[in-house]
Each structure stands twice: as structure tokens, then as C-alpha cells.
Amino acid sequence: MDGSDGRQAATAPTRSWPLLGTLTLLVAVNVLNNAAAPALYVLWACVAIVGLVLLARADGLRRQDWGFGPVTGRAARAAAALAGVTATAMLVGTQLAGFATAYEDERVAGMGAGEVAFVVLVRVPVGTALLEEVAFRGVLLAMLTRRYGTAWGIAGSSVAFGAWHLLPSLDLAAGNAAIGSALGTHHLAAAVIGMVAAGLAGAFLCLLRIRYDHLIAPLALHVTTNSAAYLLAWLMVSS
């Protein structure tokens, strides 16, 4: 992705079906993961990642176009710094009265240590973070940028990322103590807030992807944030 002129150097694609196929695949996987067959969450993620790579190739994208080229030292250092700072900030947050309730998620209550380890080490890194980074900061961002430029690529990817969180956000008010206290039974309001927050986060992750010319930086931040949230929530609910 060439950030100097807002477009990739490659010729703009003439076929629309890879982009439409990408959006269709993401809708299908979202429904499978959150409604139809959530028990196979990681499997659907792996299938989707393969499908996304094939669609990227069909669109004429190279690995480096969607953020999977060689990792530079600069990108690796940024990823390590983002992970370290995020983990430290989240750990400190559990000790602050004003932030501690944000970690109290009843959805992790009753989980055993083995189940939490699977979530933190496999489900989140592969089923959530890797899939979402390849999809939204990788393939979709690259496809949209080639067609419409960087600004529209970021906007489109971020809006899609927000919409991706509609179904999982419906349970926010019921599962999280802080959100439930603020919104009560207004699940739709919680879902809208979750979608907007996800969209804004998606835009920031797009900027990281572009700045470091690789998915490793947004992926490191994404994995650390989600895995640490699960682990800290489990520790607080279990204590």
C-alpha cells in the first residue's frame, strides 16, 4: 500500500466480484460465529482467512499489499511496544476504582483455567484478532484503497468493522457490569455504542497498518487488548 499518493501502485482492478465476495464471506462468517454455529468459532475463522487470501489473489493483490509482506525491524518494535504498553495500562486499570468495573464480565464466570487458556491463547489470537486484521486491515482495506483511495479505504473498512460487531454487541449490557449499570436493559443502545467504538478502533488500527506497512502492529495491539481483557475479567470474577 503506497501511502504517498493514497493509492496502491498496482493498476486499479476492473472486476467487482472479489470485493463483493469478500463482503459476502464476512457476513456469512459473522452469522455463523455469533448465531448459527458459534461452537465452531475458530474453524469458521480459519476457513474465512483462507477464503480471504484467495479473494485477495483473485483481485490481483500481493501479500505485501494486504499487510503480510516481510516484517521490518521498525514494525516489529512498534508491535512489541504496543503490546507492552497496552498490557501494562490494562493491568493498572484493574487497580483503579473508576475503571475496575469495566473488567467485570459475567460471561467468563464459571470458566475453568483450561478454557480460559484456550480463549486467551487460541480463540482470541486466531479466531478473533487474526481473522479481523486479515479481513478489515488487510484484504478489505487494500481492495477499497485500490478502488477509491486511502481515505475511503479507511472509512469503508472501519464502517464494516463496526457493523461486524452488531451481533456480539447485543450482549454487552447483560454481560458487563459497567455497561449494564449505565444502560440498564437497553441492549440496542449498547449495541450501537459497541459498533461506534469498534468503528473508531478500526480506523486507528488502519492507521497503524498503513504507518508500519504490515499487519503485525495492529495485530499485536488487537491480540493484547482482547486476550488481556478476557484474562483480567476472569481473574476478577473468580476472585
Please tag this protein with its features.
239 residues; single chain; 11 helices; 74% helix; mainly alpha; disordered N terminus; 0% strand
Tell me, what's the shape? globular
Write down the overall mean pLDDT.
Answer: 88
Largest sheet: none
> Structural class of the secondary structure composition?
mainly alpha
Kindly estimate the percentage of residues that lie in beta strands according to DSSP: under 5%
Tally of individual helices: 11
Number of domains: 1
User: Share of helix among residues?
Assistant: over 70%
Overview of the molecule:
By secondary structure, this protein is mainly alpha-helical. The chain has one domain (17-238). It is 74% helix and 0% strand. It contains eleven helices and no strands. It has helices at residues 17-36, 41-58, 73-93, 97-100, 113-148, 150-164, 166-169, 172-175, 177-183, 187-212, 216-238. The chain is globular. The chain starts with 16 loop residues before the first helix and ends with a helix. Mean pLDDT is 88; it is low at 3-9 and 177-184.
Topology at a glance:
Layout (H helix, E strand, L loop, with lengths): L16 H20 L4 H18 L14 H21 L3 H4 L12 H36 L1 H15 L1 H4 L2 H4 L1 H7 L3 H26 L3 H23 L1
Helix pairs in contact: 1-2, 1-5, 2-5, 3-11, 5-6, 5-10, 5-11, 6-10, 10-11
